[in-house]
Specification:
35% of the residues lie in helices and 15% in strands. By secondary structure, it is α/β, with parallel strands linked by helices. The radius of gyration is 17 Å and the shape is globular.
């Protein structure tokens, strides 16, 4: 049977790359985009077999979008739900400089919004064996933070890892993966071209897809990078 994946935030960057990866591997793909964003590239991913790619609309920061989004999915089930929505946040990344709005925005987009939606989507996972994946970061590790800095982004990813663990603790039939994609050459990864990334998009999304396919259905909660290395929490 053809495997199916829902990728939340698939209109650009890592999400778009993942949509293409899984589509090219023969999966059925539902990719979401925020209302009003350009979805031409996402639709092009499925050009060779439109029946295997569906585009849906949701902004994870807006609770009012959840019910219509779930209704659009109907009784569709997924082997994997991949939560990719994230932002870098304020360029300064400083707790001392951050406004309440800046901190609220990054936590809502990177942590609360995706986790809230993920909990609403648990009934859309194939069970047993369903897999919930989150685009995490090595910056979300407490153990390996030896240089400090990047306080806002780190805080959002630490919180994401913790709340993902909470979902797993309450649903041990699930597999829950938190995956670091590397420092990738995307608009976000380069801060709009102002900094140099470590790897290009292709190797990152191939690695992330490999990690998902390797560990899906394992029943584990894992924190991994795109090369399948375990990260310390």
């Amino acid at each position: 049977m053809t495997k199916s994946i829902l990728i939340v935030a698939a209109e650009r960057g890592l999400g778009l790359g993942l949509a293409e990866q899984f589509f090219n591997r023969g999966w059925n793909v539902v990719g979401t985009a925020r209302p009003g964003t350009d979805i031409d590239e996402l639709r092009r991913v499925g050009a060779t077999d439109p029946d295997r790619l569906t585009v849906a609309t949701i902004d994870v920061t807006d609770a009012a979008h959840i019910a219509p989004f779930l209704a659009s999915l109907g009784d569709r089930l997924f082997d994997v739900v991949f939560m990719n929505a994230e932002i870098w946040g304020a360029e300064h990344q400083s707790v001392l400089e951050a406004t309440n709005e800046e901190f609220s925005q990054i936590m809502l987009t990177n942590t609360f919004g995706p986790i809230r939606l993920a909990r609403h989507l648990l009934n859309q996972l194939v069970m047993p064996g369903g897999t919930l994946a989150f685009m995490s970061s090595h910056r979300g590790s407490i153990a390996i933070n030896v240089e400090g800095g990047l306080e806002l982004y780190r805080a959002s990813k630490v919180a994401s890892n913790m709340l993902a663990r909470g979902i797993y603790a309450e649903n041990r039939a699930l597999t829950v993966l938190s995956i670091h994609p590397g420092w990738v050459d995307t608009a976000m990864g380069t801060l709009g071209g102002t900094v140099k990334a470590e790897i290009s998009l292709g190797p990152s999304v191939r690695g992330v897809a490999d990690v998902v396919e390797k560990h899906m259905g394992s029943g584990a909660n894992l924190y991994l990078d795109y090369q399948d290395n375990r990260l310390d929490w």
